[in-house]
TrEMBL record:
UniProt cross-references to PANTHER family, sorted A to Z: ACETYLTRANSFERASE, RIBOSOMAL-PROTEIN-SERINE ACETYLTRANSFERASE
Source organism per UniProt: Pseudoduganella albidiflava
N-acetyltransferase domain ranges (all copies): 9-181
Gene Ontology CC annotations of this record: cytoplasm
GO molecular function annotations of the record: protein N-terminal-serine acetyltransferase activity; protein-N-terminal-alanine acetyltransferase activity
Superkingdom classification of source: Bacteria
Record InterPro entries: Acyl_CoA_acyltransferase, GNAT_dom, Ribosomal_N-acetyltransferase
Residue stretches spanning the membrane: none
The protein's name: Acetyltransferase
Coiled-coil annotated residue ranges, if any: none
SUPFAM superfamilies in UniProt: Acyl-CoA N-acyltransferases (Nat) (SSF55729)
Length: 185
């Protein structure tokens, strides 16, 4: 099982035993995450979490998605989730998405997740570009993407569906550093 870690955080695939913690985290975050992601609602239950975890395991086996739970370093406290998906095999790019439970927001877990997943995409999955798509108005996610070093490219009209309606979204990107850029750091 692929695990990605920093000193403070661990990203690992969710397993069936994580379902109760996932359901609780989503319900806790219905007011914040739910504003931007329709699946995060107050009635999100154990069966929803179990279905999502099974879906993620199948998608990982098929190589179409790499979704992770975000945990504190010891691997017990679920802070949210993040993943790589929507792979464009011809042009070697993918989407990076993330969400954090309300009580874990603005504590570094999201930034760590973006950095770990981007490195995984470039170094292990052979991607040349990682996109982060943020619905217009989602200042917290936009701020996190920018803090992670993503370059804002545009505000795209009707880029995402938000509660069943088309909504504009910011398109940001990360690309691997060139050797010259690394030597200047």
């Amino acid at each position: 099982m692929t695990q990605l870690r920093t000193a403070d955080f661990l990203l690992r695939p969710l397993v069936p035993a994580d379902a109760p913690a996932l359901a609780a985290a989503v319900r806790e975050s219905a007011d914040t995450v739910g504003k931007w992601m329709g699946w995060a609602h107050p009635a999100y239950g154990l069966s929803d979490a179990e279905e999502w975890i099974a879906h993620c395991a199948a998608a990982r086996r098929d190589g179409v998605s790499h979704e992770f739970g975000i945990f504190r370093a010891e691997g017990e406290v679920l802070l949210g989730a993040a993943g790589l998906n929507q792979f464009n095999r011809i042009n070697a790019f993918c989407n990076l998405g993330y969400w954090l439970r309300q009580s874990a927001q603005r504590q570094g877990a999201g930034l760590a997740a973006v950095h770990l997943l981007a490195r995984h995409a470039f170094e292990q999955l052979g991607q040349h570009r990682v996109e982060i798509i943020v619905a217009e108005g989602n200042a917290a996610s936009l701020g996190l993407a920018r803090k992670a070093g993503a370059l804002h490219e545009c505000l795209a009209r009707n880029r995402v569906q938000l509660h069943g309606r088309p909504h504009p979204a910011h398109v940001l990107s990360l690309v691997p550093e060139t050797p010259a850029e690394r030597s200047m750091s």
